[in-house]
Amino acid sequence: MSAESWVIERLGHHGDGVAEGPVFAPMTLPGEVVTGRLEGQRLCDVRIETPSETRVRPPCRHFKSCGGCAVQHASDDFVAEWKQGIVEAALKAQGIEASYLPMHVSPAQSRRRATISARRTKKGAMAGFHARASDAIIDIPDCKLLHPDLLRGTALAAELAEVAGSRKGEISIACTVTAAGLDVDLRGAKPLDGPLRAALGDVARRQKLARLSHEGDVVCQELPPAQSFGRAQVVPPPGAFLQATREGEAALVADVRAALAGAGKVVDLFAGCGTFSFPLAEAAQVHAVEGARDMIDALQAGWRNVQGLRTMTAEVRDLFRDPLRAEELREYDGVCLDPPRAGAEAQVRELAQSDVARIAYVSCSPASFARDARHLLAAGYEMGPVRVVDQFRWSSHVELVTSFVRPEA
């Protein structure tokens, strides 16, 4: 083999192939022999000399240039094995072995929220995703990732850039699909004054948006941009967290409900706007705890307008600085835990000292989950099988859900 050739040994956590060195080669797969031009540790102008049997034709014509997806060149079976392997490696690093349920993979064109970038140009504006390893913006008219209703957000983003952007930098448009139309939050735009507010309102009405906000400040709301959580209709604050796909959310909710079946009183920690709180309230009393006041306000407004659920209460509380103490947890026989990427170490240490019978843990970070799981296992909890949930199809992002049960429960 010549000095200009490399053998790809594995995929890194971001989806690049990794050869000895390490040398990082985008859009390559384990076992492939590749050549290219080495810049630092990154291989450019990669040529596949010996392709992998798991290599497939990318379903999207934008894949080679767009930075939105990382592994469209790999078979679905390979991607599933790779993503489960990321979870396995994180757990093994903490000395944990686990069993696994079948993976859930959201279908193509199912992403209901995304952030679209846009920039004014001399002739108008450009909108889409960033190019691979670049801050350049490319158009994505045939994206296979976004829901069709969300894909129209690219043309909207270009129009918003012309109205509210500057030639000095790009703006971001956080778009979410709702039954009433797109819910849009504009970020990085010119300061909101009277003329800009009027111009943005004109765009919102012409484009039939449900809601248009500027840095979280609602400019125009034609219809409530509600989301369905169980039986409830909730209007999240602009830019609020939402599970990426309806299918992925349904898979997570089903496993959380199964993990907490039989619990009469549940506390939902990092509750957001009620993704899990409302489905759980169909069978249990629920206390929802979330650090963001606007999310709790949205949850409570949804609760006031829904019938047929058990009692639900809510609390604004920073669970990183002020977790529920072990003595406070005594009144609950079930806990739902869905923290951000940092995990919930402070809260988990309190759970480890509690006598809560069962915990449903949803995670978007295998590494922080594995750290938290180690604390719970050391305290005597037993971990159930893990389900990997792939809502961010063709990316390196991994989510999971599992349960922890005290043996005496």
Automatic annotation (TrEMBL):
Keywords: 4Fe-4S, Iron, Iron-sulfur, Metal-binding, Methyltransferase, S-adenosyl-L-methionine, Transferase. GO terms for biological process: rRNA base methylation. S-adenosyl-L-methionine binds at residues 243, 270, 290, 338. The active site is at residue 364. SUPFAM superfamilies: S-adenosyl-L-methionine-dependent methyltransferases. PANTHER family: 23S RRNA (URACIL(1939)-C(5))-METHYLTRANSFERASE RLMD, RNA M5U METHYLTRANSFERASE. This is Class I SAM-dependent RNA methyltransferase. It comes from Roseovarius nubinhibens.
